[in-house]
Amino acid sequence: MGNGKSFQDRFWAKIQRTETCWDWTGAINSRGYGVIKKNDNLLLAHRYSYQEHKGKIPTGISIDHVCHNKRCVNPSHLRLATDKQNNENRSGANRNSTTGVLGVSRTQDGKMYRVQVMHNRKNYQAGPFVSIEEAERAAIVLRNSMFTHNNLDRVAM
Question: Polar residues bias located where (predicted)?
Fold first, then answer.
């Protein structure tokens, strides 16, 4: 490398620490995660930070951002998770949601709301509900009964 900086120096130069997150200011991939090149290999910045501070990441295991900030590399905001657990820790509704509430959609006639939660490849449903608030509470209760890594739902209760 011609600039004389070590990989560690290059890595830490790309982090802006806030009161909570350590935001990656370097390159970002198409999914919104920080990336950095080391010896012709492209590394995910959050995975590198986890390994440097907490140790090896087992094969097939994801790193979950507890803070929901894909650019964060703060090791206290990162935890090991299966893909299922990582997907449980959602921060909002899907992009194609018609209600803007995770797991809540309108009934076919559009007059009420229903809840649908996927767990272990099986759909669980509840409702109908008169109000979106009632449906949202039911969705949270249903997810909390099945999920282990849904932090925002647990705070909402």
Answer: 88-100
